[in-house]
Amino acid sequence: MPSIKPSRRELLRIGSLAGLGMAEILRLQETCALEQKPAKEINCIFIFVLGGMPHQDMWDLKPDAPAEIRGDFEPISTAVPGIQIGDVLPKIAGVTDRMSILRSMTHGDSDHGRGFHIMMTGKKAGVGDFNGNQNNNQHPCLGSMVAKLGKPGALPPYISVPNFLNSGGPSFLGPSYGPFVIAADPAQPDFSVRDITLPTTVTNDRNLRRQAALREINRFERGVQDVATQVKSLDTFYEKAYGMMTSKAAKEAFDIQREPTKLREDYGMTSIGQCSLLARRLVESGCRFVSIENGHWDTHRKNTYSLRELLCPAFDQAIPALLKDLEQRGMLEDTLVVITTEFGRTPRINQLIGRDHWPNAFSICLAGGGLKSGQVIGATDKQAAEVADRPITPQDMCATILKVLGIDYQKVLRTPIGRPVPLVDDGKPVDELFS
Fold first, then answer.
1. Does residue 405 sit within a domain?
2. pTM, 2 dp
3. Which residue, among 230, 287, 181, has the nearest Cα to 31 in the 3D structure?
């Protein structure tokens, strides 16, 4: 059969009939093959505490420091003998045996947006403004790396809730590897997820037109030799997008109302609580990477009040509930939970009774994913100001996460013009986490 090239107008007509918004997100599931299959599929729940956790009040207390440094919180014992954390986290103290606390994180940028970028990507930010909720990545974020190199499943491989997380974009990988954004808070009574049901405005006639697009695509596929692969992909992407909108299992994964009221209350009817519960549902249904934004931790003033009354109670309820729920379902070994932030807070309390930005030393936590738990890695000096032992960089954190998820952190990607870009520049996995 002679080669037949469809005209630009015909291809545009097919695309407009198909209406492929969701399909663009799902495109990555067919355009990339799994390049390295891990022995066990590990998923990731990536909780980003936006604003900067005060490490010396939560994870790395210095009770012998002067009052203007140690602050108002006291260290308390935990489930692991010898490990203490702040008294503002009494429930998390009961699950430290499931966690590893990394107390020696460090990088050199005290700007929020640039801190987001290096912690989300493992790459220092170049020139430009990195603040504002925008897709300003200069390197793919961890979620996009997983979407590009991980094994596709029934759900989008990278989902972000309750909004797009700063520096959470795909950079040169292209929009197909960006997150499916749940732009809604699951703690709200009217919570729903767009794009997983046919809109009420899509009439039966319009739905029939969309399905007619598939017949048009198939017709062109049979007659086109040089673009047959592209057309076949378009067919597949549309079918998957339509399949998600009509799949009972896919819709149920997003339906947090199906959870028992008691369990929802255990997590807490808060944004961090319900986002964490929804994340568990999503990884349980096949999503590889869920990012959660937990915001407003920028405690330049009233640090003690903000932590004790506004921020830590919901956080302290959600994290243990998530770890226990995963464990009870047999999912903790297969789910890596990362609790991170863009930087720490200053050792010295300021005149507004707050703490300012401090990237020199801070703490993050990891749990699950088969990692060794119940330990502290690294240490800071007597004022929690500088790393005193075992510095860990954002690059090391990214390499660790990728290794757990079965992705080669030493892989070199190619930009659209062919420029080689290492996935992680000089990071190495934190060996102490691997037993």
1. yes
2. 0.83
3. 230
